[in-house]
């Protein structure tokens, strides 16, 4: 009889849990990690037996290619707990497909589906205490792959490490943000890998974002690299514009990441009868709408913050404030999505997956 994968996962438990030392009321995003991590190495042309081991340091050659050529991809997803103590994931199949899509573009070998889900479920069961019930509490899950082969030769590696680490998270209201519309810098280009969750896409954003922060903006809205005339997305969020009662968002492309939150909001809007236009969005039409008062809302959509309202944007030296609505779409979407994630509402789309 063939063993199932979960029987194949070698588990080495932490001798002691760190959970007692964690202040769950005051979590800084992404700083604290749970007791265990999932590890699977790719050597000799195949993924080896996966392991779950205590969260801790890695030993990697300084010449490992990830350090020199950035051959690395990742995912971001969350686990939620309802009031009965049941744990849920939200559309995890989308994250699984996307990490392999990102991997393909970075010439990283595909990771097997059974390993991904068995590894994830086993890890979530082991570290289940770390997922706190209550609206807004979650466990942020970070699967990633790095090229570990020791060699500074500039080509794809033949050794990799796939890992999953988990960090308890809280959603807290950090205030609506102001964003700067990119006029010079770009995060991605046609034929590039903007659609991939690849490490280098984020490294390249830090400097322009730092410059934006010096001007008083927290984030950048990237525009198309060719003309800078079209709105694309923010650093780790897709962007929606509400003009009158219609939502506008850019179509995904090889420059824009296909966000799970974005496509979930589009589906919910359509079900709710809110008009959504998925089409190239001109910077000039948004500036015009801001001037004539028809721009009602701008918000980002992504797993970490769910929906993140934007209160103002800067463009060509001008600053445009967006007047707060009484019943923002952003609030409606955030609640509707979280109700599904926390098992507080029906899930007509079949997005929730019990662990
Ligand atoms: C992760 C990410 C998003 C949001 O994707 P979700 O699947 O909704 O979390 C959007 N844009 C970029 C560039 C991202 O990295």
Automatic annotation (TrEMBL):
GO MF: L-isoleucine-2-oxoglutarate transaminase activity; L-leucine-2-oxoglutarate transaminase activity; L-valine-2-oxoglutarate transaminase activity
Pathway membership: Amino-acid biosynthesis; L-leucine biosynthesis; L-leucine from 3-methyl-2-oxobutanoate: step 4/4; Amino-acid biosynthesis; L-valine biosynthesis; L-valine from pyruvate: step 4/4; Amino-acid biosynthesis; L-isoleucine biosynthesis; L-isoleucine from 2-oxobutanoate: step 4/4
Any one GO BP annotation for this protein: L-leucine biosynthetic process
The keyword Amino-acid biosynthesis appears for this protein: yes
Positions carrying N6-(pyridoxal phosphate)lysine: 197
Superkingdom per UniProt: Bacteria
PROSITE patterns: AA_TRANSFER_CLASS_4
EC number: 2.6.1.42
Cofactors that this protein relies on: pyridoxal 5'-phosphate
Assigned protein family: Belongs to the class-IV pyridoxal-phosphate-dependent aminotransferase family.
This protein's name: Branched-chain-amino-acid aminotransferase
């Amino acid at each position: 009889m063939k063993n199932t994968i979960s029987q194949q996962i070698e588990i080495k438990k932490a001798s002691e849990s760190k959970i007692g030392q964690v202040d769950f009321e005051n979590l800084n995003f992404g700083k604290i990690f749970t007791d265990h991590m999932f590890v699977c190495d790719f050597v000799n042309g195949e993924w080896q037996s996966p392991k779950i081991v205590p969260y801790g340091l890695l030993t990697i050659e300084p010449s490992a290619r990830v350090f020199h050529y950035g051959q690395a991809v990742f995912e971001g997803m969350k686990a939620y707990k309802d009031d009965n103590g049941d744990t849920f994931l939200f559309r995890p199949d989308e994250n699984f497909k996307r990490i392999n899509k990102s991997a393909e573009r970075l010439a990283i070998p595909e990771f097997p589906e059974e390993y991904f889900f068995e590894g994830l479920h086993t890890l979530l069961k082991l570290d289940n205490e770390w997922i706190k019930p209550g609206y807004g509490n979650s466990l942020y899950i970070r699967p990633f792959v790095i090229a570990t082969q020791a060699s500074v030769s500039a080509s794809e590696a033949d050794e990799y490490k796939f890992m999953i680490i988990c960090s308890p998270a809280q959603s807290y209201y950090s205030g609506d943000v102001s964003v700067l519309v990119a006029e010079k810098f770009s995060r991605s280009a046609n034929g590039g890998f903007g659609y991939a969750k690849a490490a280098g896409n984020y490294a390249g954003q830090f400097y322009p974002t730092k410059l934006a922060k010096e001007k008083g903006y927290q984030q950048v809205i990237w525009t198309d690299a060719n003309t800078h005339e079209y709105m694309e997305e923010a650093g780790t969020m897709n962007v929606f514009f509400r003009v009158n009662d219609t939502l506008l968002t850019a179509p995904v492309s090889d420059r824009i990441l296909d966000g799970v939150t974005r496509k979930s909001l589009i589906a919910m809007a359509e079900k709710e009868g809110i008009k959504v236009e998925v089409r190239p969005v001109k910077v000039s039409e948004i500036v015009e709408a801001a001037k004539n008062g028809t721009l009602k809302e701008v918000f980002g959509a992504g797993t970490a913050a769910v929906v993140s309202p934007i209160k103002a944007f800067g463009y060509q030296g001008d600053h445009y404030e967006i007047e707060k609505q009484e019943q923002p779409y952003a609030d409606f979407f955030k609640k509707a999505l979280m109700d599904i994630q926390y098992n507080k509402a029906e899930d007509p789309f079949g997005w929730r997956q019990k662990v």
